[in-house]
Amino acid sequence: MIEFQQQFPIGLNVNWINAKHAPKTASLHDWLLDPESLTARLKGQCDKFQVHVIGQQVEPCSKLEANNNIAEGEDVLIREVLLICDGIPQVFARSLLPLKSLTGEQQALANLGEQPLGQVLFNNPKLHREVLEVAEIKPNQRVCELAAMLNLSITHNLWGRRSIFTIEGKPLMVAEVFLPSSPAYK
């Protein structure tokens, strides 16, 4: 796997819209709006599932990523990873974990390493998805440059989804972009 530490953070400077505007293409629509764990679904699609951490650091939340649950300027732990099935990167994920949310049992979320965040979240019965949004990602975005560095041919715009979750009233945000090799486009 190519070393991406120098690329971190990739970021997602995209226009998120309400999930009701998701594309109607059956497969893509199904993947974007799936209410269950993306990690679990990907694991079911392959023999060997891996998480490759691109980077993780504390930064103030940007104006672009601020929302009703996470304020602009609030300190958040940003974590970017690749979700890989059978050696092929399928998803780029970017998580924002407000430091105020990383208390009690949720402190463990700051030290996941190569463990998938989705697996930890969806195993928590106190998890609630508050918001689901989608975005079409144009080829000029950094995540598309990342896909090109991974030797993934981009022949169409990519799509992603962004969820705001709460655990015991503590918010966190997870954005996932389906890379060109993802089964979402089949």
Give a short overview:
With 186 residues, this protein is an alpha+beta fold. It is 15% helix and 35% strand. The chain has a single domain, classed as Chorismate lyase-like (Chorismate lyase).
Overview of the structural elements:
This protein is of the alpha+beta class and 186 residues long. It has one domain (12-185): Chorismate lyase-like (Chorismate lyase). The protein contains four helices and seven strands; from the N terminus they run E-H-H-E-E-E-H-E-H-E-E. The chain has helices at residues 26-33, 38-43, 117-122, 142-149, and strands spanning 17-18, 49-60, 75-85, 88-98, 127-137, 158-167, 170-178. It has a seven-stranded antiparallel sheet with strand order 1-5-6-7-4-3-2, sandwiched between helices. Strand 3 and strand 4 (88-98) form a beta hairpin. It is globular and about 40 Å long. It starts with 16 loop residues before the first strand and ends in an 8-residue tail after the last strand.
In CATH, what is the homologous superfamily? Answer: Chorismate lyase-like
Strand order across the biggest sheet?
1-5-6-7-4-3-2
Which architecture name does CATH use? Answer: 3-Layer(aba) Sandwich
Which spans of ≥5 residues are poorly predicted at pLDDT below 50? none
Give me the secondary-structure topology.
Blueprint: E1 17-18, H1 26-33, H2 38-43, E2 49-60, E3 75-85, E4 88-98, H3 117-122, E5 127-137, H4 142-149, E6 158-167, E7 170-178
Notable features of this structure?
single chain; 186 residues; 4 helices; 15% helix
